[in-house]
Structures
1.
Amino acid sequence: MDFALSTYYPIFLFLAFLILFAIAGTIVPHLVGPQRITPVKQMPYESGMDPIGDARKRYDVKFYLIAILFLVFDVELLFLYPWAVSAYELFSEGALTALKEPIFWEVLVFLATLAVAYLYAWRRGVFKWR
Amino acid sequence: MIEYNLVASILTIAIVFGAVQGICAYSILAERKISAWLQERLGPNRVGPLGLLQPIADGVKFVLKEQVIPDHVDRVFYLVAPSIAVVTASIALCAVPVGRTTPAPVKPWTGTVAGEQQFLAQHGPEWKQTVEQYNDTYQFMIAPHLDIGFLFIFATGSLAAYAIVLGGWSSNNKYSLLGSLRASAQMISYEIPMGMAILGVVLFAGSLNPEKIIQDQADSGMWNIFYHPLACILFVTAVFAECNRLPFDLAETEQELVGGYHTEYSGMKFAFFFLGEYTHMVTTSLLVTLFFFGGWHFWGLNFDGFLGVVFKLIIFVTKMLAFIAFYMVIRWTIPRFRFDQLMGMAWKVFIPLTLINLLATLLVKHYGLPLLVLTPISLGLLLAAGWFTLVLPPEPQRSPIPFRPTSPTARTVMR
């Protein structure tokens, strides 16, 4: 199929509709509903206790490690999608048949390097959640 | 040239969005009813016959209630977060077929301009006719013939993490912050196995286009579940974690974190978070259906014309509703995991298993083995993983950490 930009029009149409829906849904209830502000209502809810300090505290570095690892694996996944689509559709017939074998081995090497990185992270104890 | 029909897409948007909102509202009622049956209670039965008007009453209440914005919140992000939740969850519906679809005609890829011209010279009129025929048929999805369909769905699906992070952070409440941290760590962890589990399916279909994947299954009469059972199990489990459904709802463990990231939200903004969650559920149920259960296809029910459109819509929606019911029954069947178990499962079990599964699929595809070989391989891998976890030495128990108040404030509280 030829690339057609018109494929993407409905997405933008839907997006515009959804944004309008969200804005209306956020604003209208404020106009309709009652407003009776009391000091207790304005307090953070911590199971009825008076809160000590605010929530801007330090938190565990584990979350940061997970985020970094996610980046590694997600980018790897992004490389694999185009390969999975084209490897056996595009390169199995016509002029590009010669590329089929090298691509197969390259993907194996790619997965192997990924496995090495994965094992390294495991050995260093990144997946240990304490 | 494939044409664009504005009226058709506006109509489809209206139908799909309205239907999904309705399904969301009534699946909340269904959730309450099913949980009541499983716990031998009655459930909502006061508003209307059998409580069937309950969702409408809930909706009216959400709009008419006082919208509390606490003093301590970061106002901009606090107001934006629920909208992000509902918009990102719904926009993924664009690329999901909900009824009868046909894949767009594909011009054989010749690699050169001369080759393409030669193709057009030889098959020009035929090609024009197929495209016209395609233009004349109605596709039951918002954005048909989107080549990057699944990438779009996964990309928008992962944007939902922003809603959770922003909602939890801007609430400035310790419960919300903890809940949002947990939820975002969980969501990004399970996104990888979810994306990787379907790589095998994509490899066999050679396309990211949902219409083509359904058509392939309909043509061969064999749903993907028969070839990729392990991928299906991994995908469904990862979807549970993505939607924060119960065995994985660590983000809003009521006993520890009150409500998780939406503790400080009330009224319509809370409803938006809820709506986003349920829309996500509907979208992922549709995804499971079209990836592994043949979409609108059912053996022996392959009609053409208007009857076909209606039948395929009914089949698709029935499969989706069956999945939503499955979600709800699981919710009241399996107890919640611990957070370290949850993260361990994503990183130590799911990712290696999906990688090995992908490798097996790749080998079968590359050496042109018969497809049915995949089924025993897939099930064998599942059994092997189960056996391996049994054999593996248990992790050493951690000793309980004694409670030592360190900060001066904590000490005053202790006294």
2.
Amino acid sequence: MKSILIGTLAAILAAGAQSNEAERQLKAAMNAELMNGDIKTAIKQYGEIAAKYKNDRAVAAMALVRMAEAYQKMGDAEASQVYERVLREFADQKAAVMIARTRLGGHQKPETRVSTRQIWTGAQVAYYAANSPDGRLLSFVDQKTGNLAVHDLTSGVDRPLTGKSGWSESDEFAEYSTFSPDGKRVAYAWSSKGRYEVRVAAVEPGGPHPRILYANDDMEWIAPTDWSADGQWIAVNLERNDGATQIGLVNVANGALSVLTSVEWSPSSKMYFSPDSRYLALSKPDREGSLQRDVYVMAIDGSREIPAVVHPANDLAVGWSPDGKNLLFSSDRKGPTGIYAIAFEDGRPIGNPRQLHSDIGQGRTIGITRSGTLFFALLPGSRDLLTATVDFAAGRAIKPPTPAAHQFVGTNYQPDWSQDGRYLSYSSYGQRIRTVLKILDAQTGDTRELAPALRQFNFARWSPDGGSFVAQGTDMKGRQGVFWIDAKTAEIEALEFSTPGGNMGIPQWSPDGRKVYFIRRPDSSGNDATLVERDLSTGIDRELLSHAAIYWFSPAPDGKSLVTDAVIPPGKDRAISIVSTEGGAPRDLLRPGAGFQVPYWTPDGRLILLRKSGDLWAIQPAGGEPRKIDLGATRILDFRVHPDGRQIAFMTRNDTPQEVWAMENMSLVLAAKK
Amino acid sequence: MLFLVAAAVSIPLGLDLYLPAPETNPLTAAKIELGRRLFFDRRLSNDGSVSCSSCHDPERAFSDGRAIAVGVFQRKGRRNSPVLINRGYGRLFFWDGRVSSLEEQVLKPIEDRNEMDLPLAEATARVSLAPDEIARALASFVRSILSGDSAYDRHINGDRAALTPEQRAGLQLFRGKANCTSCHVGPNFTDERLHNTGVAWRDGRFTDAGAGPGNFKTPTLREIARTAPYMHDGSLATLDAVIEYYDRGGNQNPGLDPEIRPLRLTVVEKQSLIAFLRALNGRLYR
């Protein structure tokens, strides 16, 4: 609609406007509105033009149309009055009348639906993105350098705000950022020599160098997420060195931190100040360890916390309407992620939420401009968890891949089937909160969550009796190791912590559940790794491989051997090999350098599956030529076969560029629904 | 030093600005004052001999210095009087965590036979307040008992001279080798969870089951140097004894928390750790 309007405006000016000065002034007002986002100034200028050039009816009519458009952006009901004035006083100005009629519709009311449009696309554009209050700029982290940069939506130009030349210069990098209310500065997290700081940079070129606003050696991580409209506070999520996670306010004037509240969850989702700077909207887990969130509002003086949206669905704070009368949130209560508003008055929510948009896709919201445009990012370039039915003998899928998870799509990974085939587990990190384990019951279709007290974990594998998992992970104190996880209670126990500087890899159960295999790496090089067999009843370790670079392995279902992807001296070339658990020299299954990776022994023991160039391949354990399995999907990352030998769960990677979208007319819709 | 006012109380440096209170009992100065009077009111005990403050003495950082609490008629309780510092931020109350709100907690000692032994109806008659009014007022007063602005708080807020070198070494140990932050974490130095640290295990059995085999709630370490003796049974008289206990890995028992294991601290390290714990004495606001 906007392009139609601008085109019509151009035609009017070309055909009817007699005064170059009128045209210049109209363009200046449009520049204030569209380029600078200064809508109030633009309205004033449109009004002055309409008055000054009242005899140049084409100019006056179009100034009024633009004025009404600007009011509409602000959600101001004055828009209808101005459109009606155009109809009443400028009936001879056909183009302006057409626009006014369209806007008012048959009932002579303004358009009452939000609209969305894509405004930017590119790799990684959405991560850590923030919008300027006028909606002209988006800040983002340039993954090629670590710099904080801004993308100008009007010119399409990217520009760094920090001065790194690249990763070769240092390993410093920016993360979350937020614009000042006047749009002239950006506060951002900066990781420097392992320490996080909040820094402030000027947006316009030639401004002062970035300065450190807040730094503290006691801080493990900090993320500025919003700058209050009064300019005084920056809301931050933070994590202390002792593992405590907190929500705080940094005083812009003196850099002092006030901790608003300490929380037991990872506060990694965004928070939003109300326009009057009195409240902070945030998203809290609906129960301990859950990925599902509810929306709460905290008074920034710490006097109270208000439950604003408490619902079984995943509800996330998105921001506030520009007039502060509505709290906005996203929710998957109807399936897809929609945008909702709930009235907020006198420090509490009023009435029921209203749906503004039924489905904004899978992604995350970025922020709201002062005129009420919501920016959100779609993240198609992520991971999807799929299942398919495969005829391994024929080498193809007989039932095409279908999504295995319907919530937090794009963040689910590393599937595993329980030995009885009833449960499919997978890891999920939702909105980049703590990792949880999801367990899908194939009989009931229900999915439950398991939230072990680990910051993150990988490769959670079912025990043969279905009572527990082993996983590689990092506990809440930052200790990396191999952990046992109770499948019912999520209770954890460390089987072994890695040594300082080292790490542990991909634990796997022996088929009888009496042993656990894992990789012990004493240093980050990984070239001196050991493949360990731990007898769980005695605690005694046996080394099956040592002084090797071990990338992957999988035990045979008979427990007599493992297939490995490793560089095993004295061969010195990376190869897929069979290693006997009873000892003896490894046997190469595939010639070194053939490019096959991540070998996995199928539950019936007949095949070893492998990945090569993102495709799935199979080979018999005795050897022979590998055969490609056509799954009907590419870029396969991790796969596990169901005990029935037919179903396969796997994840794929999708590198489709990320997209940033704008949702407009929100203020008008909210005003119309009153 | 940072003071910010939240509702009716001043929040000292190091504590969260948001001091939770139920919607049914917002914090007000009037209720805090009423709660303060009730806290010291001996009429709330059967024989008029004790008040809440008898076991939670403000001069002892709201503890009583005894191993085991003593109530009316000199009756001995079962456990050590827990300190009442920063309980407004708590989620579990009593050593066994059996109660989840301060409003519920504050009435229990009044009724408990070994503590104040007064039926609530009688308490109501004596102070002319309904039980829920007593509960709300006492809970409000307890919420106002805050300790912060310690040398540790000043240190982590950027004053690097606030801790001595020995205390800084102790802080490193606290978070590292001594593994204290497994349980004593956050601004209040408690995870508000239940753990079996082995203290209740003696001679092959639990002397007190707590919340289930030998589990007790992690207490705050704020004002720790002023609140001896320690543990749920007051069995460790000094901080040195506490450090020695954990250094040897606690009392081995079937449910011992896996984080409790021999620490192998040196003499100097133990001294540093205690020096750090003393840095948790701060300003007590009430």
